[in-house]
Amino acid sequence: MRFSTTLIVLGVIFIIGAILSGCKKQFSSFSSDRSAKLLINEKIYPIELARIAQEQEQGLSDRTAIGSDGMLFVFNSPGTPKFWMKDMLFDLDFIWIRKGEIVEIMPNVPRPQDKAVQLPIYKPAQQVDMMLEVNAGFAQKENLKVGDKVTLSDQ
Question: Alpha helices, DSSP H only, in the chain?
Answer without folding.
Answer: 2-27, 53-58, 138-141
